[in-house]
Amino acid sequence: MQTAPPETVTVAPTTAPDVFAVMREVSKAEQERIRMRLVEYRRFDPPHFCESSTEPGTVEAWVKGMERLFEDLFIPERDQIYLAVHCLEGDARDWWTRARRSRPKDAPPVTWTEFRGMLFDMYFPSSVKERMEDELKKLRQGSHSVQEYFQEFSRLLTCVPFVARNDRHRADMFEKGLSPELYKLVQIQHLSTLEASVEMAMRAERGEVVLRERAEMEQSSDRKRSTESEAGPSSSGRPPRYPRSRFQGRGSFAGRRPGSIRSPGGARQQR
Asked: Region entry Disordered: which residue ranges (predicted)?
């Protein structure tokens, strides 16, 4: 008995035009999404950067302004570069155009962290970066609060991010600049991120303030009790605890020789 040959199922191949059509639809959808994102972003008046100056504060202020908007608007990382370059003007926009064209065609997309580093490399001369790197390594809290110290630490680190190898290294650098008292409390925790180290330092600082205020209140109370004790009972305005006898201080028996009495008329008589 002969078996029938298996039926062959013909699958229509996907033609190149069909694939390209799908890609075009995806591309259109992505373009529309990013276009709407840009419209929304511009409503919040993002900062623009067009300076050709190498002044660190100018670049730093723009970077911080952009990052603040990224955080407030929940901008995903894949959109950050696209939105940022739309805020470049003049020499800065020309610089980015040259930098983008010089990248290999198979290079991965530029991340915001990479873009920020490229920007600092362009606008910070080596002498400025070396000076800021030295300042960061020598930075100490001193008499400043933890918040003030962290702000300066963050400012310098933003300008020279290459100084720290990773987040644990950043946390270690921050902790070493704390006051000796706070350093002892924070470094023993072996925290692995800068954010955790900053939070722990602030909590330790608040604890020190509470303990200091408590000690000052106790010292003030001790001084008050000591002053009242030295001033005597009458200083408190309360009657004495042990009132004097009505005979004390009136001379009834004071200076009298044994065996003598005083007559009603005041003459002394001998027994």
From this structure: 210-271
